[in-house]
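Fig. S4 source data, part A: sequence.
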Amino acid sequence: MSFFSKLFGGKKDSAPVSTAEAIQKLREIEDMLLKKQDFLESKIKLEIQVAKKNGTKNKRAAIQALKRKNRFAKQLQQIDGTLSTIEMQREALESANTNTAVLTTMKSAADALKSVHKDMDVDQVHDMMDDIAEQQDVAREISDAISNPVAFGQDIDEDELEKELEELEQEQLDKELLGIEPTDELPNVPATTIPAAPARTRTKAKPEEDDDLKELEAWAS
């Protein structure tokens, strides 16, 4: 059984791993390969030291050290490529996992919104708004009725008032046409006396005219 088969559980008949589990396993492989890199880099440094040490003394040993160094360098290069592939796959899974979480949340929100609107109907909302407007009109009429003094027994017939006003206007017009000032009191009699008429030859007048003249003089005095 290969290393990856052991790591991911082989060909067992089990449910597929979740995205989070796959991401976790890829991170574990990355950690292992990074440790492998450190190990190979240390081995390469060691083989270089061996080659330098035996370069003049033991040429064969120096060449063998360089061969091992080259094998380690090749393995290191392969690990670098593997790490790049795993890193891209992990990032793709993390992005997919994020998108899945976002879509799941949006689906839950849509279901919640649908549940809220389940018992609501547009026509019912319009009917409710009409009822509110009607009740506002009723409230306005009640306020107008309360603020109207007529509600306290002051019921006045405007037609009678207009008729009375027309009579007053007609009375005023009649007085103006007759030259009478619009007042209810008689004018005061002037306090001055009427000057006496010049003497003239008294003629015989009728008894009735004398009586009228005497009455006028008595009233004026």
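Fig. S4 source data, part B ends here. Residues 59-116 form the longest helix (58 residues).
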